[in-house]
Write a structure and sequence with these properties.
By secondary structure, the chain is an alpha/beta fold. It contains 11 helices and 10 strands.
Length: about 350
């Protein structure tokens, strides 16, 4: 039987709201936050003050709903629940759909309006199922219906302060058009990566992140960019600009980069920070000398955060579920300030 809790396990520890531009900070995130082995309920992950959560999804073409699990494509296995109040998020049955997970986040944010901003990393493990009505438009519609105006959209980055639009996300990022962390309090930025199963499928000719980049390009051209809800993510560390692996006409729509921290550490990353790109460094624990992926000491995790902040990370991720004092930290990007 699942134990029921009527109130949060602990009070939220929100990252400080301040006037630091969003792309000028380094924060900490959690890998596979939706797993019940990590937290009994998704809201407990948000209570840590984390700046990033990850949700893996699978398309169910029979129901038209997205399953949430690590490796069970036909069933839900997660810590998302249902309910419309904060107390509801810590009780009841779990193993819900992606839309329910998003609604959990919305309810939690409404109860903690000064929290965040929060990045949501979405991994469609098998990729999209466009032929079955589960493509980019449908995912956008789901996000919009569940999170509403809590989403910081690509259009919000593209909009010039005095009116008009930047030509691409690349232009907007290089112009420093990111809001401050204070302006993004209580809001989320979703970014999508190609799925691990999708990556191994030789018949998948259109990786999810490339489909989203094409989606943004086409919506911008048709004047409908405000419909888009998600940022595509450039994967890998190859070359001076990892976007060179993609077609030239979609490269300007990638301003979020994601790969293992060890791959970033031994290269010059100042270019990412100078252009105000978001650089997500995963498996922060694995950087030599490796520390625990789940339960390092606070001093070890803090030292690792400062090391990767100095390497221009925007967010570092691991499975440090028991360190809210680290999950809620915000430090200046590009600096190793031992006094923070």
């Amino acid at each position: 039987m699942i134990a029921s809790l009527a109130v949060p396990v602990q009070q939220a520890v929100a990252a400080p709201a301040n006037d630091m531009p969003f792309a000028s900070a380094t924060t900490v995130g959690l890998h596979n936050t939706y797993e019940r082995g990590a937290f009994d309920y998704l809201a407990e992950a948000l209570d840590t003050g984390t700046s990033l959560i990850e949700i893996d999804i699978w398309p169910n073409v029979f129901t038209g709903k997205w399953k949430v699990s690590h490796d069970e494509p036909l069933s839900n296995n997660n810590n998302c629940t249902t309910g419309s109040t904060l107390a509801d998020l810590y009780t009841g049955s779990r193993n819900k759909h992606f839309g329910d997970c998003l609604h959990n986040i919305r309810v939690w944010l409404e109860a903690h309006p000064d929290s965040g901003p929060l990045m949501i990393k979405v991994e469609p493990k098998l990729g999209l199922a466009t032929a079955f009505g589960m493509g980019v438009d449908q995912v956008d519609n789901l996000v919009r219906s569940r999170l509403g105006d809590r989403v910081f959209r690509p259009a919000d980055l593209l909009a010039k302060p005095g009116g008009g639009w930047y030509d691409s996300l690349d232009d907007a990022a290089q112009a420093g058009n990111w809001p401050t962390r204070e302006e993004l309090a209580g809001r989320v930025l979703l970014h999508v990566v190609p799925g691990t199963v999708e990556n191994r499928n030789p018949f998948d000719w259109a990786p999810t992140n490339e489909q989203y980049a094409e989606h943004l390009r086409d919506l911008a051209a048709s004047g409908e960019i405000e419909d888009a809800q998600i940022f595509p993510t450039a994967k890998g560390t190859a070359g001076d600009d990892p976007r060179d692996q993609y077609d030239a006409n979609i490269r300007p729509w990638f301003v979020v980069f994601d790969s293992g921290a060890s791959g970033w550490l031994n290269r010059d990353t100042t270019w990412f920070a100078a252009n105000n790109y978001l650089l997500v460094m995963t498996s922060a624990h694995a950087v030599a000398p490796a520390i625990s992926s789940t339960n390092p000491t606070e001093a070890e995790a803090r030292e690792r955060l400062l090391l990767l902040a100095g390497a221009n990370a925007s967010v570092i991720t691991s499975d440090w579920t028991q360190l809210p004092q680290i999950q809620s930290m915000v430090v200046p990007r590009g600096e190793q300030d031992e006094t923070v």
